[in-house]
Design goal:
Length: 160
């Protein structure tokens, strides 16, 4: 388990696309887009930005990639740092038993990892938006909050 200052640092460190490509097509329902990121000031820090489209929901996630060593092989794991679940009908139960209904945000903590969520409309991480149905606008706010370079572009015309 990471300590909270490490989690906060990983979310706030500046991130760039790890590769030459910086424009991606948004996923269609049933698809997922994953973009590899890195911290230019700490090239060993690797991240994955994930956008998943369901038939009635969207999920935007930033994960830190880590190597977990085992006796025979190295396995690649991604630990979620922050995730937004965009589904008006979603129900999430926090570790303390509190029910969260509708769109919500998970931000990793040292105690619970990414298991704790807050209603998207009641938090101050992503600025209040005109509509929680505007995935491109929410993505841009998420990108800014996670300090991902602004040259990363997602073409939403074929996606959501």
């Amino acid at each position: 388990m990471r300590i909270q200052s490490d989690i906060d640092y990983l979310i706030s460190v500046f991130k760039i696309v790890d590769g030459a490509r910086s424009t991606y097509k948004a996923p269609r329902p049933g698809e997922k887009l994953e973009v590899k990121l890195m911290a230019p000031d700490s090239p060993s820090l690797k991240f994955t930005l994930s956008i998943a489209e369901g038939s009635r929901s969207s999920v935007i996630t930033l994960k830190i990639n880590t190597d977990r060593k085992t006796t025979l092989q190295t396995r690649h794991f991604a630990n979620p740092l922050i995730r937004i679940d965009l589904d008006a009908k979603a129900i999430h139960t926090n570790p303390d038993g509190q029910l969260i209904k509708g769109e919500h945000i998970h931000i990793a903590t040292s105690e619970y990892g990414d298991k704790f969520a807050w209603p998207l409309k009641d938090q101050d991480i992503i600025p209040q938006l005109a509509s929680l149905d505007n995935v491109p606008e929410i993505f841009e706010a998420f990108r800014e909050y996670c300090h991902i370079e602004d040259t990363l572009r997602v073409d939403w015309s074929l996606g959501v």
